[in-house]
Amino acid sequence: MSKQKGKKSKDELNKANTLVNRYLCNFITNKFLQTFHDQDGNVISQNKYASSCGLSSSTLSKLKSSKGYDIPMATIYNICRYERYSLRDLFEEFEKKYGVDIPL
């Protein structure tokens, strides 16, 4: 059997998903996680920030990893909710930076 024209194999899709996750994690890290702040703008620890977001500190460490990880939507939502930032705005900025079809 040959692969249909324009169809990607499961392996190609998995590689693309991994790349999107890495870019998304790096984007969120650069936007929100370089220095941790409370909602009044004061610098706080990673542990306090994680707790305020309803996440574990290890989740933030994985997110900040240069390899990224398979970030759950709930994690993105918790960070955006804490930062008072809409998901729509976050993903619009992400698409402006990376486009809608991230090549391998």
From TrEMBL:
Lineage top rank: taxon: Bacteria
Protein name: HTH cro/C1-type domain-containing protein
Organism: Flavivirga jejuensis
